[in-house]
């Protein structure tokens, strides 16, 4: 299995499904963008803001 297929499996594992728009992203761009997304967007925040007060 290639890197692209592994990325799709990882996306599905983390998000529950592969969003439709992902199919339109060129493979080389998806490989680059997913690596960045995992480092930034998918991280849990170091602190939590309580907006209920």
Describe it:
It is a single chain. This protein is mainly alpha-helical and 53 residues long. It has one domain. It is built from two helices and no strands. Helix 1 crosses helix 2 (27-40). The longest helix is centred in the middle third of the chain and has 14 residues, at 27-40. The termini are far apart.
What descriptors fit this protein?
mainly alpha, 2 helices, 53 residues
Gist of the model:
With 53 residues, the chain is an all-alpha fold. Helix content is 51%, strand content 0%. The chain has helices at residues 3-15, 27-40.
Structural topology:
Blueprint: H1 3-15, H2 27-40
Helix pairs in contact: 1-2
Number of domains: 1
Contiguous low-pLDDT stretches (5 residues minimum) are: none
Helix content: 40-55%
The geometry reads as: elongated
């Amino acid at each position: 299995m290639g890197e692209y297929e592994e990325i799709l499996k990882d996306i599905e594992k983390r998000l529950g499904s592969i969003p439709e728009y992902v199919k339109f992203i060129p493979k080389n761009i998806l490989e680059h963008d997913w690596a960045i997304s995992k480092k930034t967007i998918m991280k849990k925040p170091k602190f939590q803001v309580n907006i209920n007060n």
